[in-house]
Amino acid sequence: MSGEAAYCDWVAVDWGTTRLRAWAMRGGSVAAEAVSDKGMNSLEKNEFEAALLQAVEPWLGQGRMRVFASGMVGARQGWAEAPYRAVPCPPLAGPGIAVETADPRLHVTILPGLKQAAPADVMRGEETQIAGYLYQNQGFDGVACLPGTHSKWAEVSAGEVVSFRTFMTGELYDFLAHASVLRHSVGEGWDAAAFEIALSDTLSRPESLGAKLFGIRAEGLLDGLPPAAATARLSGLLIGAELAAARPYWLGRDVVVIGAETVSARYIEALENQGVSAAYANSDEMTRAGLMRASEAFREAAE
Amino acid sequence: MSGEAAYCDWVAVDWGTTRLRAWAMRGGSVAAEAVSDKGMNSLEKNEFEAALLQAVEPWLGQGRMRVFASGMVGARQGWAEAPYRAVPCPPLAGPGIAVETADPRLHVTILPGLKQAAPADVMRGEETQIAGYLYQNQGFDGVACLPGTHSKWAEVSAGEVVSFRTFMTGELYDFLAHASVLRHSVGEGWDAAAFEIALSDTLSRPESLGAKLFGIRAEGLLDGLPPAAATARLSGLLIGAELAAARPYWLGRDVVVIGAETVSARYIEALENQGVSAAYANSDEMTRAGLMRASEAFREAAE
Q1: May I ask the CATH class of domain B166-282?
Q2: Please, which pLDDT band fits residue A6 given cuts at 50, 70 and 90?
Q3: Which residues of B touch A169 (CB under 8 A)?
């Protein structure tokens, strides 16, 4: 979908594996939005510019439009590689990688992701959200939890990402709920009590995850476990196992959960059950805030 | 594929979710074999007879051929439901469920699976393999480990299955290796040392599974982790986590691993690393032995 015509002074782009989202920005405000399924996975190197143009063309005028993008667009298989920066480091630094475009109306910059040597880990996109949160909450010292396809837990201190760890929770959930044998058991609805019980099961006995997963199917067959309970239990088991492994991150710390609303609420509830109070920040807003910070850094560097 | 013409006195069928395998049997010996992709998932109720006929027709003669089948063919969505029997109970009892066929040359019997009330669990097919093992190893008292799409651990005592537990290890492996983000990192080959390290990682710290999985991808990106090491590590992490959860089954017990050769060898190596010596039995052979036991029970009941 192309954006509607709008006047803007810069463009923010969240460009992931399966999706591109662009916002026409007037300072820190959104003037228009465009979404397309032209994620990195579906594009050859020479197709990125056209995919971007299709989304943002209605916003272009006479001059060059500054476009700041983050996410998998900067991967080796993306439009142009923006090499990872190594933690500990600030989540953003400098103006990012400039990309050459055929269309003279575009001035595109891609922000690099972060890497960690040991244990080996990488992120692309989440560093921009963390930067956005720091931009709006200067002096924040604590832990950012970014649930998603690949959940991230990041320790943030003195304006830097100190360390982080990735969990495949979201990708596992999607597979188990929609493609595995459990797809016959999970379904619409949500059973809050089932979520809490499952959560505490794997939080206290994370090794039980493997057997508890198949138990969802078995209880569906033998006891008619309702789909809403099966769904909530699957989510609870996976989030509980993630929290068990991420315990060194959140135990006794200030946590902010940065993500989409529904999944973030589950993590916040889970953390609160453990006596940890967690703030919430919307991931789209944090992406735009982080890209805004990058656009300011760019202007500062140019002056 | 239809079987080659062969003289036989009964037919053994292993009929699972995605596949049908039939053997023309002369007593306990295999005279011919047929394989087809007509598993339960791809068949409507009224298509099972034709699928069976296609496989076994070359073996039919003038009289009625006794066919003994086990697996998902007896599920509610299968050919005819063979209701689960509740443990503790012998893995086989009685002649199974007779199925009506249009073709008078067929006399089909489906063996029921087992269920467990708490924790809820089910099996279909593995009980036949356990029965086959008991048939050939009378008086066996110990634990059967049946690795596969859904691995089973069963406690066997005094000729009965006392309790069992299912793990989704095989299904998770297939997804992670072939469909998840890890598919970019895993590949051909096998690194035995990487397998052992990963195994002991999740055996001692099963909660680390979630983070260690993504680590395979990250090390692939940052350190060029070879595909053979990535594959072995993925397998080791998942089997280690299963063994951690199944510890009450195998610790200090006599174990027999019943399965396909390659995957069984991995479980046996893992158990031996823990000081548990495990016997091996081929799952196809045990299926045939179990079905042979059922055919004898049928004859005894008829006499």
Answers
A1: alpha beta
A2: confident
A3: 210
Angle subtended by helix axes A227-245 and A169-178, to nearest 10: 160
Q: Which residues pair with B240 in a beta bridge?
A: none
CB B69 within 8 A of CB B274: no
Residue whose C-alpha is closest to residue A268's, from A125, B209, A260 = A260
**Would you list the domain boundaries of chain A?**
10-124, 166-282
Pick from A116, A208, A222: CB nearest B120: A222
Would an 8 Å CB–CB cutoff place B168 in contact with chain A? Answer: yes
Which residue in A150, A223, A245 is closest to B207 by CB distance? A245
CATH ID of B10-124, from 3.30.9.10, 3.40.50.620, 3.90.70.10, 3.30.420.300: 3.30.420.300
- ipTM > 0.95? no
Closest among A243, A252, A187, A186 to A213, alpha carbons compared: A186
Interface touch B180/A175, C-beta < 8 Å: yes
B214/A244 CB distance under 8 A: no
Quote the pTM value: 0.94
Supply the mean pLDDT for chain B: 95
Tell me how far CA of residue A162 lies from CA of A53, A115, A127, B72, B202, in angstroms: 36, 11, 12, 51, 25
Beta-carbon separation of B210 and A167 below 8 A: yes
How far is residue A136's CA from residue A132's CA, in Å, rounded to a whole number?
A: 6
Residues in chain A with CB shorter than 8 Å from the CB of B222 are 84, 115, 117, 120, 122
Report how far residue A210's alpha carbon sits from residue B173's, in angstroms, rounded to the nearest whole number: 12
Cβ contact A249:A237 at 8 Å = no
Instruction: Give the per-residue pLDDT at B14.
Output: 97
Tell me the mean pLDDT in the region A197-214.
93
